Automatic annotation (TrEMBL):
It comes from the Bacteria. This is Hydrolase. GO terms for molecular function: hydrolase activity, acting on carbon-nitrogen (but not peptide) bonds, in linear amidines; metal ion binding. Binds 2 Zn(2+) ions per subunit. Pfam families: M20_dimer (PF07687), Peptidase_M20 (PF01546). The keyword Flavoprotein does not apply. InterPro entries: Amidase_Cbmase (IPR010158), Bact_exopeptidase_dim_dom (IPR036264), Peptidase_M20 (IPR002933), Peptidase_M20_dimer (IPR011650). It comes from Mucispirillum schaedleri ASF457. The keyword Metal-binding applies. Zn(2+) 1 binds at residues 77, 88, 189. It is an enzyme of class 3 (hydrolase). CDD domains: M20_bAS.
């Protein structure tokens, strides 16, 4: 694999949208259009068949004579969060393109066409909705009305932003992909945690992508005077909520091995005054995991714990399920091929899960998917300090190349 080429292309893309504090390249913005034009030129130079769909997902097809089967897709995204790093998404796009380029240059015989996919609008930071490009491809258009109404920080609607970039929002349904088009899809991505850095493994096979289950808990205590109410008579909603926060933490620690985790990220108390014992507490719990059964079991324990605590304090407590998304398991033959390729290339690897969402989640609705993570040397992502070692890029890209070769055989 030509790592020098990969690094050079990543570098050039990172210059587009560069600010003092990182890279800002929102979907359909001017910098996004510039980066896309640069990529399109590369694709043309390599001699791949270029096309775009109505939402602006980009495709580069390599279909030599003899490659007549279902398509093997590979890719990621190039849009960023505000002040993002240079590898999130871009590493996957460039590694995918480099892999196809090498297979073409070496004239490696393949039976399945290979296609680079550059998903549009993966990040939710501009219009509040994530992985839109892949959702459209997978036919997940349930949020059409919310998308139509979504507005960015400058008050520009998605519909207007798309129009300015030359796309018609009302045509997006035309980009739904036929169900049997792809045989498989593989995405390579930078690890967005510090896990691989601690384990010191250059690559990881991703076993699943976690999805959130969101719960709202309302604790009905009793507001009272902070000076004249004796401790033994109090039903302090915040104290009760605090017990539940610790219980959620302890359950998370117990579920660590089973890849489920929960966070109380928001807690409101009422009336929220210095001289009043809190009467009501509303807390929001985000539970994530890669296995629906484990998440449900975890939620059941949180529910039981809430009731127990409420009973002990003689208060009532309401538990409301706000939303529940389906996690994406990646235990299939694609993951097996990734793992086998690690052995073939003698690359040390680990298994991991992704706490963050990716386009792969949606592609998994239409084909078998696999994901490769590459070690993040800084341990941070969605940040300008995001960093990867050159040798890790080399290993990651070689692994993707080997995987695609096997899949397309
Ligand atoms: Zn990403």
């Amino acid at each position: 694999m030509n790592t020098v080429w990969i690094l050079d292309v990543i570098d050039k893309i990172s210059q587009i949208g560069m600010t003092l504090n990182g890279i800002t390249r929102h979907a359909f913005s001017q910098s996004d259009m510039q980066a896309r034009a640069y990529l399109k030129k590369l694709i043309d130079d390599i001699g791949l068949e270029y096309r775009e769909d109505t939402f602006g997902n980009m495709f580069a097809l390599y279909k030599p004579a003899g490659a007549v089967g279902q398509v093997i897709g590979t890719g990621s995204h190039i849009d960023t969060v505000p002040n993002g790093g240079k590898y999130d998404g871009v590493l996957g796009v460039v590694s995918s393109l480099a892999s196809i380029k090498t297979i073409k240059e070496k004239n490696i015989p393949i039976c399945h066409p290979l296609e680079l996919i550059v998903f549009q609008a993966e990040e939710s930071s501009s219009f509040g909705h994530a992985t839109m490009g892949s959702k459209i491809m997978a036919g997940k258009l349930d949020n059409f009305v919310q998308w139509e109404q979504s507005v960015d920080n400058n008050g520009i609607t998605l519909v207007e932003a798309m129009k300015k970039a030359g796309y018609n929002f009302y045509d997006i349904h035309k980009s739904v992909v036929e169900k049997d088009k792809y045989k498989a899809f593989v995405e390579l991505h930078i690890d967005q945690s510090e896990k691989m850095k601690y384990e010191n493994k250059p690559v990881a096979v991703v076993d699943g992508i976690a999805a959130p289950l969101r719960v709202k808990v309302i604790i009905h205590g009793e507001a009272a005077h902070s000076g004249s109410t004796a401790m033994r008579y109090r039903k302090d909603a915040l104290v009760i909520a605090s017990e539940l926060v610790l219980a959620v933490r302890n359950l998370s620690l117990a579920y660590d091995e089973r890849n489920a985790i929960a966070t109380v990220g928001k807690l409101d108390i009422f009336p929220s005054a210095m001289n009043v014992v809190p009467g009501t507490a509303i807390m929001y719990i985000d539970i994530r995991g890669i296995n629906s059964k484990t998440i449900d079991e975890f939620f059941g324990l949180i529910r039981a714990e809430s009731s127990k605590i409420a009973l002990r304090y003689k208060v009532s407590c309401e538990i409301e399920l706000m939303s529940s998304e389906k996690p994406c398991m990646l235990n299939n033959y694609v993951s097996d091929i990734i793992e086998k390729s690690c052995h073939e290339l003698n690359i040390p690897y680990m298994h991991t899960i992704s706490g963050a969402g990716h386009d792969t989640m949606n592609m998994a609705e239409i084909t078998e998917c696999g994901m490769i993570f590459v070690k993040n040397d800084s341990g941070v992502s969605h940040h300008q300090n995001e960093e990867i070692l050159k040798e890790d890029i080399e290993q990651g890209a070689s692994l993707l190349y080997q995987t695609l070769k096997t899949l397309a055989k």
